[in-house]
Amino acid sequence: MSTGFGVLEWEKFLQDLQVFKKLPWKDTEWTLEDHTDMFPNIKLPGLIFLKTKKWVLPENKKCEQNLTTNLQESKVGKKFDNEEKEKEKEKEKEKEKDEEEILETFSDLDEEEIEDQNTYYQTPLSIEYHILYSSTYSCPVLYFNAYRSDGRTLSQTEIWEIIPQKYRKEFEKETNFHFISRKEHPLLELPFFFVHPCNTSRFMQNYYKTKNYLLSWFSVIGPAVGVKVPSILFTHL
Length: 237
Fold this sequence. Notes:
- This is Ubiquitin-like-conjugating enzyme ATG10.
- Helices cover 38% and strands 18% of the residues.
- The protein is α+β, with helices and mostly antiparallel strands.
- It folds into 2 domains: 4-57 and 126-236, Yope Regulator, Chain: A; 64-77 and 86-119, no CATH class.
- 21% of the residues are buried.
């Protein structure tokens, strides 16, 4: 079991790390990266982490219907307030009028603009995930970077856009701010995105009986950034 109050000690993190890595993940291979040689004479926590890389198709951008809906809502808007009931014949006329306005809206759009947006939304992203340990918060922290097929990294705004809506709303409600930020990776010294760990101990208090703190934590964090955790993995603990 994990340490009380939802936190995790470094030694237990290392134990959970080994178990986590050996679980039968589907289409995901986790590897250990050891940086203890950076400080050979000092035993510092946080110098070993897990990493993996996956191709991910953003869930809330993966079909043309999403683009169509967004364009309709942004350029056409709400047409009727439905405050009064009208005759069936009048409703049909209004419906036809609405359809004509939508067609006019799309006729004004640049075809290349639509093609570019569809291509952007439907292109898989290469996402690299690192699970590190935070000595400050005594808990795991997820660092990640998302890359286009040409190797360019996504901006923070673009990262936020590919997060499924249900997770954006949930985390904004819990934290009152965007739960993803960008800073230098503590070991690689490269810009990485990371999921804020400040509330981890609070929500992990609900998992105080878990056999593997790391897996329970990742089952909450992972899906928000493109990695689903099959429930069957818990049967292998």
